[in-house]
Sequence to fold (161 residues):
Amino acid sequence: MFKNFHADAYFDDITKVSPEYLKEKGIGGIILDIDNTLIGHNVPIPDEKVLRHLRLFEESGLKLCVVSNNKYDRVKNFSEKIGVRFFVHEALKPKARGYDAAAKQMGLDKKNIAAIGDQVFTDVWGAKRAGCFAILTKPLHKGGEGFFIALKRILEKPFIK
Fold:
């Protein structure tokens, strides 16, 4: 059971994940978390470095899908702003249904999808439960996340290499 809380790979941030690394792993698509993975707390869109990296993924042939527990309007608007056409809102991570929906939209088998996120108990656990390659990044911004996320950050420390 605890193996589902350990990511398959760890990176400081999404810009450290190269398309070549993903392709070597047989990855054809990427599930992207929003908050603290692509943007910091209360930031409307990613910085230019992250946006360039998302374009690099696409130019290398990787499909992108935003998967978030946020509401429809938030996820749709964010996805449009960053130029990603596939998205899943109210994914209920760590349940597998959001990952299943993303795989269907991208037309890929989940074993060929990497899910990138900053939380062990939602992003990593959800990816592993769904059969995706789980990549954990450091959160872009700590603080101001609310009590429950702050508590999860403490509880997830033993599972982070």
